[in-house]
């Protein structure tokens, strides 16, 4: 809606090369750490993106996982499964349809604690490695004449 100039701006967004073509970005308003959630009975060990090619990784539609991750996805042929919501991604993880779910650490535990019973959430943990650490920003469309003022306020 902001891109169509129906809104003056929107929050919170990661900086990525595609969005930079269309939007001005504010200074960082917060920092998100995307980690890989997995079932406790199926631990994961990885040090580089290449190590992830043996796993089925759940992502959420419309989210950016950073240019480095998306480049690694192509370079190493990572097996990606897209879900429309984080909650559905957790359901797939619990059923074993995916091995890993990329999700913000705080958001992931909020979803587990608020949308799943204790018997299910006790089956899931997160890998301590950070997949992507990104700042998030308020964005305003470049096509709007005063948008630069809005992100600098």
Describe this structure in words.
There is one protein chain. This protein has about 150 residues and is α/β, with parallel strands linked by helices. The protein has a domain at about 30-130: Periplasmic binding protein-like II (D-Maltodextrin-Binding Protein, domain 2), CATH 3.40.190.10. It has six helices and seven strands, in the order E-H-E-E-E-H-E-H-E-H-H-E-H. It has helices at about 15-20, 65-75, 85-95, 105-115, 120, 145-150; strands at about 10-15, 25, 30-40, 55-60, 80-85, 100-105, 125-140. Strands 1, 2, 3, 4, 5, 6 and 7 form a seven-stranded mixed beta sheet that branches. It is elongated. The chain starts with 9 loop residues before the first strand and ends with a helix. The mean pLDDT is about 90.
């Amino acid at each position: 809606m902001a891109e169509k100039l129906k809104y003056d701006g929107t929050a919170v967004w990661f900086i990525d090369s595609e969005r930079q073509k269309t939007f001005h970005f504010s200074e960082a308003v917060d920092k998100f750490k995307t980690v890989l959630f997995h079932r406790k009975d199926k631990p994961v060990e990885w040090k580089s993106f290449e190590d992830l090619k043996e796993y089925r990784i759940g992502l959420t539609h419309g989210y950016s996982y950073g240019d480095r991750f998306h480049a690694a996805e192509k370079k190493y042929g990572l097996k990606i499964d897209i879900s429309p919501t984080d909650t559905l991604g957790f359901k797939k993880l619990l059923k074993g349809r995916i091995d890993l779910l990329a999700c913000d650490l705080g958001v992931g535990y909020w979803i587990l604690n608020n949308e799943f019973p204790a018997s299910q959430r006790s089956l899931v943990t997160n890998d301590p490695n950070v997949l992507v650490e990104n700042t998030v920003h308020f964005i305003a469309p470049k096509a709007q004449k005063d948008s630069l003022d809005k992100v600098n306020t």
